[in-house]
Design brief:
Layout lengths: L14 H20 L9 H10 L17 H14 L1 H15 L7 H12 L4 E4 L14 E4 L5 E7 L10 E6 L6 E6 L5 E4 L14 E8 L5 E3 L10 H28 L16 H33 L4 H28 L1 H4 L11 H10 L5 H14 L7 H9 L6
Parallel strand pairs: 1-4
Antiparallel strand pairs: 2-3, 3-7, 4-5, 5-8, 6-7
Helix pairs in contact: 1-2, 1-3, 3-4, 3-6, 3-7, 4-6, 6-7, 6-8, 6-10, 7-8, 8-10, 8-11
């Protein structure tokens, strides 16, 4: 396996520095993504750039030595990286989601060790989803008490974004006491990380298999769920999903504009010398740009609502607005990423389909990433709110109901 010597981690002192750092490393990440010879290669270098830039640590609160960045800034860094490569943006997304989880439910010593690792450039991956069950809540991975008193983990996970490249893996498991969160170091005996993510898109998310074979757990690294999940509990991963898709849309539009200016030929009936002078092309690029600008604006608005919610988390009106605004951002980012990344080929011509240009990467990434959480259900919640006065929600309510029914118990 290829590894790179890690340079010192950059210390970021402001949110403006964090955004600038994301832009800086996005240049190299984009160059790697554009090279079709890099397709299917593990993104060791890209992950290293995330860590060295310091942006993987910006979510650590100031009280623990971090920048304590706003949701707006975290969202923007994920969007910027996703413009360069949606798969690498997903590595950053899941790291940020898992990072937030260490500040609740674990002893202070565990939290402090993990924070220290993150500040040193270490990253989180996840191992939440499983395949083969009736639905995503049907967990076969289990934590059980052995006769000798040891707590042991067995099972397997798939869609384990970033885990193959991460220092820490955050996972969920069933147990006799209900759902449990577990943190594992990548070197834990009995843990196997498998490079088997063979999807046609988002390849650099490295979302393959993690196996757990009789892993003896340190109980300090096991968190038992206490009470129901917050009704806004999924809005953070959701808004970062929107950031990824918005970034992919921007990357696709930028690549299309570059190709039209430098490589495309005008259609014979157009009467112009260059493809970027064709009136129909100009109009269509305008439509793409409007769709993208709407997605970007809605993403920024949802992030502002999120930061307001963070200051007043029990405010029911803000909770509702957060769920609705994130769902709206997700719907528009979903649409813009799929529309632009697919439709650009109608303007670029047949030569743009050649593998050497690697322009299909945007559609492949958008198509795969937008399947992760069905947009039809985000729209359902918005519609039910406006039509039937039903409180907007996410599937946290379903998760809580399954937990009550004993779905994560023996």
């Amino acid at each position: 396996m290829t590894t790179f010597e890690q340079a010192p981690i950059r210390q970021l002192h402001s949110e403006a520095e964090a955004i600038a750092a994301a832009h800086e490393i996005a240049v190299e990440i984009a160059a790697i993504a554009a090279d079709h010879r890099q397709n299917g290669q593990l993104p060791w270098r890209q992950a290293q750039l995330l860590s060295e830039s310091g942006i993987t640590a910006i979510g650590v609160p100031e009280a623990f030595g971090g920048l304590g960045a706003s949701v707006q800034t975290i969202v923007e860094t994920v969007r910027i990286i996703s413009v360069a490569d949606g798969g690498v943006g997903q590595l950053l997304q899941i790291h940020n989601v898992m990072l937030r989880g260490i500040f609740n439910g674990y002893p202070d010593a565990v939290r402090d060790r993990l924070v220290s690792d993150v500040l040193a450039g270490k990253r989180f991956g996840n191992a939440l989803a499983e395949v083969g069950g009736k639905n995503k809540f049907a967990l076969k991975t289990r934590v059980e008490r052995r006769d000798d008193g040891a707590l042991v983990l067995n099972g397997s996970k798939f869609y384990s974004t970033g885990s193959y490249l991460a220092e820490w893996i955050s996972l969920t498991a069933a147990s006799e006491d209900g759902g449990a969160g577990v943190l594992l170091n990548r070197n834990a005996p009995g843990l196997t990380l498998v490079d088997d993510w063979e999807a046609f898109g988002q390849k650099n998310s490295v979302s393959g298999t993690v196996n757990f074979d009789n892993i003896v757990l340190d109980e300090d690294y096991v968190s038992r769920r206490k009470g129901p999940m917050k009704r806004t509990g999924l809005t953070f991963p959701q808004i970062l999903h929107a950031a990824i898709d918005t970034g992919i849309a921007a990357g696709a539009l930028s690549a299309a504009v570059d190709y039209l200016k430098h490589n495309a030929r005008p259609w014979v009936e157009s009467g112009v010398d260059h493809a970027n002078e064709e009136p129909h092309i100009i109009k269509q690029i305008g439509e793409y740009a409007v769709a993208l600008r709407a997605a970007e604006s809605l993403l920024r608005d949802a992030a502002r609502v999120f930061d307001a919610h963070e200051l007043d988390p029990e405010n029911k009106q803000l909770q509702d607005e957060l769920i609705l605004s994130v769902a709206t951002a997700r719907a528009h980012s979903d649409s813009a990423s799929l529309k632009i990344s697919s439709d650009i080929f109608s303007l670029l011509g047949a030569s743009a389909s050649l593998s050497k240009w690697n322009l299909d990467r945007f559609w492949r990434n958008a198509r795969v990433h937008t399947t992760h959480d069905p947009i039809r259900w985000r729209l359902h919640h918005v519609g039910n709110y406006y039509l039937n006065d039903v409180d907007p929600g996410e599937y946290t309510a379903i998760l809580n109901a399954k937990e009550t029914q004993g779905a994560t118990q023996k």
